[in-house]
Amino acid sequence: MYNRIRKQLNGILRSTNGPRGACSGDEHVPAFEAHRHIRLLTFNIQVGINTSSYRHYFTRSWQHFLPHRNRIQNLDRIATLLSNYDVVALQECDGGSLRSGYINQVQYLAEASGIPYWYQQLNRNLGQLAQHSNGLLSRYRPLDVKEHRLPGLIPGRGAIIARYGAEEDPLVLVMMHLSLSKAAQQRQLAYIQALISEYQHVVLMGDLNNHAEELLSNTPLKHSNLVPLPETAHSFPSWRPERALDHILVSPSLEIRRSEVVSYPVSDHLPIAMDIKLPKGYLETF
């Protein structure tokens, strides 16, 4: 599998237009089924680097630019976790460059975890040095998947929006990685809020680089009526979680059956998981 993926990515890298995002295609993906709940996960995987101390930001910084033999092993550990979920949002993935051994990490994790659908959004293209990407993994066939470039002074942030169910009343999942700057976050969330305002059943998930109280009180998301995780859902840093930067925010129409910060320290962020129940009567539409 490694050689096959590398061959595919080498072909992309040699193209005259440079690398682009990629998708598995959905012909082989099961249709959205009338399940009563969906298991969600969001995870900033830090391009497969295992960080367990602040000093590793210095001692292992070279792994952001060069390949490392333990990266695949760490990806396999991540894939073991992902195999337990239905829809996964991934941040800080590499789309196939020198540092990842020319492996599209979104595709690798999808295949290793047995999840049939994957979508990679390439946000910052540094050629063979790095392919900064977001990713979506899904056990269900979406109605459609669209990627959006988020506004900001420094380009390179993006969002993936996947819709499921019925065209007239879809379940809308937004996966994103926001900037660190509060000014940029305001612009980015204004953009997102405009996209989701017409929908009733919405899930926002990803590394939002801010606390939920701030996001839902002092940004354009205050108009969204989204429900956050508890304030104690700290996900960063993974070895001593003190800040709630990773989130799954849902519409009131979606009942939260279970939510947790998953104790799985294989990145500098911990993953966030949520089990949501679809509204009563909604399932009969499919």
TrEMBL record:
Keyword Phosphoprotein: no
Record carries keyword Hydrolase: yes
Protein keywords: Hydrolase
Pfam families xref list: Exo_endo_phos
Matches recorded under InterPro entries: Endo/exonu/phosph_ase_sf (IPR036691), Endo/exonuclease/phosphatase (IPR005135), GPI-anchor_lipid_remodeler (IPR051916)
GO biological processes: GPI anchor biosynthetic process
Ranges for domain Endonuclease/exonuclease/phosphatase: 41-269
Source organism, top-level taxon: Bacteria
Molecular function terms, GO-annotated: hydrolase activity
One term under GO cellular component: membrane
Protein name, as recorded: Metal-dependent hydrolase
Native source organism of the sequence: Marinobacter algicola DG893
Higher taxonomy: Bacteria, Pseudomonadati, Pseudomonadota, Gammaproteobacteria, Pseudomonadales
